[in-house]
Structures are given as C-alpha cells and as structure tokens.
C-alpha cells in the first residue's frame, strides 16, 4: 500500500496525517506493506511512521535538493543526517533496534491520558 503525503523524552506528538497512516495500516491488516511517501524531513518523521506501523518511508525532496546543491556528496550527507536523527530519537525513546519501535512511543490527542513520571 502506498501513502502520500524537539522530542519529549517519552513520546512524539501526532497530527492528522499521522492519524491517516494509522488508519491505513489498520485497514491493511498486515496483508500488504504500507510505506509513507511525502513529508519526511527528519529522523523523527521516520520514527513516527515506523511507530504507527509503516514498513518504511520514501525520501524525495531532501534528496533532490541535496543532489542539486552538492551532488552525490550532498545526498550522502542528507541521508547520514536522517540516519543520525533516527538513531538519536531511538536512543532517547529507549529503542535499541527498529523492531523495538512501537505505537507506545507516540501519543495523540485521541489517546487515553497517560500519567508521565515526575522528573
């Protein structure tokens, strides 16, 4: 299936497009992979998509812009930046591998209230 389209320590906020991803993943029922295409600018965007059940993401505009500015080196740099941001987000969320990223790592307005520990 094909979809268009500051980190608090424990959760990332969701918006309406994330709600749509969640609904498509639910409708797919694991029968087909769901990929997010569009709007991916940061490693946190990748993390949220994976947490919502997407199989992966497509990166377009950042790669095209990097290619225009600095050729292959620019593309390598932007992909490394996305990778580093995803790793940092995973570390701050307590995830050591992609398989450990779950829906519990993101929170939405429509979720039941959760009590966070006092810091």
TrEMBL record:
Pathway per the UniProt entry: Photosynthesis; photorespiration; glycine from 2-phosphoglycolate: step 2/3
GO BP of this protein: oxidative photosynthetic carbon pathway
GO molecular function, one term: (S)-2-hydroxy-acid oxidase activity
GO cellular component entries: peroxisome
PROSITE patterns: FMN_HYDROXY_ACID_DH_2
Obligatory cofactor(s): FMN
Taxonomy, superkingdom: Eukaryota
Catalyzed chemical reaction(s): glycolate + O2 = glyoxylate + H2O2
Keywords from the UniProt entry: Flavoprotein, FMN, Glycolate pathway, Oxidoreductase
InterPro entries assigned to the protein according to its UniProt record, in alphabetical order: Aldolase_TIM, FMN-dep_DH, FMN_HAD
Pfam families (UniProt xref): FMN_dh (PF01070)
PANTHER family per record: 2-HYDROXYACID OXIDASE 1 (PTHR10578:SF107), S -2-HYDROXY-ACID OXIDASE-RELATED (PTHR10578)
Name the record gives this protein: FMN hydroxy acid dehydrogenase domain-containing protein
Lineage of the organism: Eukaryota, Viridiplantae, Streptophyta, Embryophyta, Tracheophyta
């Amino acid at each position: 299936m094909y979809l268009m389209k500051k980190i608090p320590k424990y959760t990332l906020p969701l918006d309406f497009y994330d709600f749509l991803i969640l609904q498509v993943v639910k409708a797919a029922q694991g029968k087909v992979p769901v990929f997010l295409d569009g709007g991916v600018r940061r490693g946190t965007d990748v993390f949220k998509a994976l947490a919502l059940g997407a199989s992966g993401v497509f990166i377009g505009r950042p790669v095209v812009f990097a290619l225009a500015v600095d050729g292959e080196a620019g593309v390598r740099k932007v992909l490394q930046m996305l990778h580093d941001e995803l790793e940092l987000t995973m570390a701050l969320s307590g995830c050591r591998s992609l398989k450990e990223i779950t829906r519990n790592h993101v929170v939405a307005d429509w979720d039941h209230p959760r009590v966070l520990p006092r810091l």
